[in-house]
Every structure is written in structure tokens, then in C-alpha cells.
Amino acid sequence: MGFRGAIFDVDGVLVDSPHERAWREALKELMEGEWSDIRDQTTYSPDRFTPAIYQAVMAGKPRAAGARAALEYFGVPDAEARSEAYGERKQVLVIKLIEAGQFHAFSDALRFVLAVKSAGIPLAVASSSKNAGLFLSRIQLDLFCAERGLPYDFVKEGLTLQKLFDADISGRDFPQGKPNPMIFLTAAEELGLPPESCFVVEDASSGVQAAKAGKMAALGVARMHDQKLLQEAGADLVVTSLDDPAINKLSEGRLEKASMA
Questions:
Q1: In whole angstroms, what is the distance from residue 60 CA to residue 18 CA?
Q2: How far is the CA of 29 from the CAs of 24, 57, 69, in angstroms?
Q3: Cis peptide before 179 (omega within 30 of 0)
Q4: What does the DSSP 8-state code read for residue 55?
Q5: Tell me, what DSSP letter sits at residue 184?
Q6: H and E: helices and strands count for the chain
Q7: Can you give the pTM of this predicted structure?
């Protein structure tokens, strides 16, 4: 049996979002303002909040869990109690950045999503972020295809990336976030498919772990030079671009690079 469903994360997979920037700037504001009295008790400094730390510690997690993980990583006292304020500060910043257009869709991801849809595989989007819909609704697939001469008959005028998906469970509250598989199991259920017939596209190790815990295949996208991290998490295939997977092998239930096909 080939793959009958494809489930996509958003941040780092489909969209180069401002989440990392918002998390970084929110913590800097707090450490230089309200929390300046405890800064010396932590290991935090602005230059230590790197993309690699964000990817390894926070990426893919719901807001509260991501906030707590970052504060614990930097040894912030009372991390649990402070995580709500940190998450709220970050949310205010990220909304401002989104509304200012401070993000873009990855072209390779849009090509891949369109190719998978054209192959007759239903699509679901499953991100922990409550902001996912704001991104997806602003990405115009009709303009993208027109500019590149992509011949997909199902791309009509006004089609956004959000409307392309057959199921969207992004931003829902689950008892446990990734690496728990509940978000992906729910996506498969809403596609009307057994989990083992789906593959998940993720850029975070916690997301890959969630896919594998749900008995799904995992396609890791290493946009941050973190191939090893995704491989160690159990990804069935790791690529640096979504132009790499062989579309014709998906019908055989195989994740392979096109060069291997």
C-alpha cells in the first residue's frame, strides 16, 4: 500500500516564520526589564539564544511548553511560573511581525505540497502553533503558480495555501504536545485514514518523534543544518530541500530522494 495521506507541520517546513525571532526578542525584553533582577542567576545572554538552541529546545512545541523549555534551558528561576508571561510577550511580538509581513513561504515546500496534491494524496496541516492559519491564509498559490508557470488545474484564482489542505487541526489544544503523537493521530483521523498510511513532514526532532510514536513515516526537513538531530529522532528520510523527495515513490509507500528513484 502506498501513502494515502500527507501531514505537514508549518513553521520551518512550509513557512520561514518569525517565531524564533519573537521568542528571542521577548526573552531579551524581559531580561532587560521586568526580570533584570534575576538575570545574574541564569545562564542567559542574547548571543546564547541561537537558532540551534531554538531548534533543539523549543521548535515544534506548543507555546507554553516551548516557553518553559527555554526558561529551563537558561536556568531561569521559577521557570514554570514565568512561562505564561514569556509566552504572552512572545505572542504579542509574533502577531506584529506576521501582520507586518515578516515571513515568507518556502518555494520548495509549495512545489512539494502541490505535487503531492496532484498525485491524489490528501493533505492535512498539523502545527502546534495557534498562528499557523495567519500564515497559510496569506500565501497565494494562484500567484505562485502563475509566476512560475506551474500547470496545476486545481489551482484556481484566490486559492490560498490554507484552502489547499483537506484537514487543518493547527493550534488546537491537546493534553500533551509533541513528541506525543496525538496531534498527528488526530490529523490522520480527520483525513479518514489509518496512521500507518500517512507520512509526516517535520523540521523539529520533537515532531519526528511524534510521527514515529504514531506509527507514521517521517520526512525530516533539515533547514538548519540539523540533519543528524532529525536522523537521531528517527526520520525515515532527511532532506535539505523538499524538491528532493521522489514524488513517484509515494504511491509505493516509500520516502526516497529523487536521485535514488
A1: 14
A2: 9, 20, 18
A3: yes
A4: I
A5: H
A6: 11, 8
A7: 0.81
Kindly list the distances between the CA atom of residue 236 and the CA atoms of 15, 36, 170, 256, in Å, as whole numbers in the listed order: 22, 44, 23, 9
What would the CATH number be for the domain defined by 19-99? Answer: 1.10.150
CATH 3.40.50.1000 in the chain is located at 5-16+103-260
Per the structure block, which three cell numbers stand in for 7? 501531514
Q: Is the separation of the CB atoms in 103 and 135 below 8 Å?
A: yes
What type of residue is 91? Q
- What cell was used for 174? 491537546
pLDDT along the chain (261 residues), means of 10: 95 90 96 97 96 87 91 97 96 89 92 98 94 90 95 95 96 90 98 98 95 98 93 98 97 90 44
Q: What residues does CATH 1.10.150 cover in the chain?
A: 19-99
Rg (CA), the chain: 19
Query: Is it true that domain 5-16+103-260 has CATH number 3.40.50.1000?
Result: yes
Half-sphere exposure of 81 (CA within 13 A, CB side): 4
Other C-beta atoms closer than 10 Å to the C-beta of 80 total 11
Which set of grid coordinates corresponds to residue 132?
499557523
Look at residues 181, 193, 66 and name the one whose alpha carbon lies nearest to residue 122: 193
Residue owning grid cell 502506498: 2
**Nearest 10 degrees: Cα torsion 14, 217, 244, 147:** -30
